[in-house]
Write a structure and sequence with these properties.
Shape: globular
CATH class of the largest domain: Alpha Beta
CATH superfamily of the largest domain: FAD/NAD(P)-binding domain
Radius of gyration: 24 Å
Distance between the termini: 72 Å
CATH topology of the largest domain: FAD/NAD(P)-binding domain
CATH architecture of the largest domain: 3-Layer(bba) Sandwich
Number of helices: 13
Structural class: alpha/beta
Length: about 475
């Protein structure tokens, strides 16, 4: 007997499980299928969550060993317990993944551990991890299978000495020398973790700047601060190969535009050059879905693919590969399937680099506004002039607000500084509601707080910042 559903969601990451939950809330009989065995996808299992656990723990270790003394706190005998730190990370992941499974049950969503393969527009074949095949009929299919690390050409990843982000989260000891290939969010976050714990870190980036896509002024200052912390950057360079000699990795680096090669010795190499959509074995060809040249599934503004009744969201479609972007799309596609008007404002999706200091951004960069010919005003405010940052001894960085020169509407907000990831939410709301910079400038902010820097930057847009 074949089971029948209103919707089958293939993938149990932030896109998939949230789509399934919302569909359940909307009264749709829903099945979520995921082959990992623990829900949450890359984000909860081997991405966002475990990396943040290590970032937080390593930052506290850095504070205790180097900065507490500046606050009148003297400690002796501080030692790193790496197995204990990893245990904290693993416990966090376990609790959150089990929490997702509970949420599916709470919202009456069926969950199957296995691979979902599209048979037809209204049939999904479930290849169960425990063995066997099960077929289910469905009115709608949502593809939310996420992404995987992009392989480094000519380099084999063994997750021991040459690792992806997955291996970098579980190294058994602190490497003496770590080479990170790629100066994006993942590379800089994991490089920061191991630098704090004692590794010498070198970052090799093909472009002539770090964090491509971020506001250029922010990226330049960000690199300066990371260099000050001890991270060495080789920009405009590529890794041509890796040789293993006597237990040491010989990383061959050459200029991106050609030139003399150099060799960097490393104990561990982290390949973090990006991620690519994961659609292997989905059966897309059976229903005529053809990925684009980047492996993404084409969709229309309602997340519909070229196949009737089949939708796609998250990392497998165009746009930034962010868990919260996938979650927003999950809610939208569920509501569309339920006959409602689901929508995502892609201009109000923030991005965060969880290093120290953090970097957070939402809306347009200066480079984008210049390229499109938009006339804009700029307001900036440094954390050196923020009272709470002074009290906390966390004064590095600044807030930058871009607003339309005529209407004063907020077009972009960029923060380099302490707790930027939490503060960017205010800016995202401002953009979502088409606020003017003056709206932020005249909104009361508690004193003393770090968020006052946002208000002062908004006042600076109008030329009347009162604290500098």
């Amino acid at each position: 007997m074949t089971d029948s559903y209103d919707a089958v969601v293939i993938g149990g990451g932030p896109g998939g499980y949230n789509a399934a939950i919302r569909l359940g809330q909307l009264g749709k009989k829903t099945l979520c299928v995921d082959k990992r065995g623990t829900l949450g996808g890359t984000c909860l299992n081997i991405g966002c969550i475990p990396s943040k656990a290590l970032l937080h723990a390593s930052e506290l270790f850095e504070e205790a060993t180097h900065n507490f003394v500046n606050l009148g706190i003297k400690l002796k005998g501080i030692n790193l317990d790496l197995p204990g730190m990893m245990a904290h990370k693993d416990k966090t992941v376990d609790q959150l993944t089990k929490g997702v499974e509970y949420l599916l049950r709470k919202n009456k969503v069926d969950y199957v551990v296995g691979a979902g393969v599209i048979g037809t527009n209204n049939r999904v074949d479930l290849r169960l991890n425990g063995g066997g095949l099960r077929q289910v009929e469905t009115k709608n299919i949502v593809i939310a299978t996420g992404s995987e690390p992009t392989p480094l050409p000519g380099v084999s990843i063994d997750e021991k000495t040459v690792v992806s982000s997955t291996g970098a989260l579980s190294l058994p000891k602190v490497p003496g020398r770590l080479v990170v290939v790629g100066a994006g969010y993942i590379g800089l976050e994991m490089g920061s973790v191991w630098r704090r714990l004692g590794a010498n870190v070198t970052v090799v980036e093909f472009l002539d700047r770090i964090t491509p896509g971020l506001d250029g002024e922010i990226a330049k200052q960000f690199q300066r601060l990371l260099t000050k912390q001890g991270i060495l950057f080789k920009l405009g360079a590529r890794v041509a190969g890796i040789d293993r000699k006597a237990g040491v990795l010989q990383v061959i680096v050459e200029p991106a535009q050609g030139g003399a090669r150099e060799v960097i010795e490393a104990d561990v190499v982290l390949s973090a050059i990006g991620r690519r959509p994961y659609t292997e074995g989905l059966g897309l060809e059976r229903v005529g879905i053809k990925p684009d040249n980047k492996g993404r599934i084409p969709i229309d503004k309602h997340y519909r693919t070229s196949a009737q009744g089949i939708y796609a969201i998250g990392d497998v479609v165009e746009g930034p590969m962010l868990a919260h972007k996938a979650e927003d799309e999950a809610v939208a596609v569920a509501e569309i399937i339920a006959g409602q008007a689901g929508h995502v404002n892609y201009n109000a999706i923030p991005a965060v680099v969880y290093t120290y200091p953090e970097v957070a951004s939402v809306g347009h960069t200066e480079e984008e506004l210049k390229a499109s010919g938009v006339q804009y005003k700029v307001g900036k405010f440094p954390f050196t002039a923020n009272a709470r940052a002074k009290a906390n001894a966390t004064t590095e960085g600044f807030v930058k607000i871009l607003a339309d020169a005529k209407t004063d509407r907020v077009l972009g907000v960029h923060i380099l500084g302490p707790d930027a990831g939490n503060m960017i939410g205010e800016a995202a709301i401002a953009i979502e509601f088409s606020a003017a910079a003056e709206d932020i400038a005249r909104t009361s902010h508690a004193h003393p707080t770090l968020s006052e820097a946002i208000r002062q930057a908004a006042q600076a847009v109008g030329g009347w910042s009162m604290q500098i």
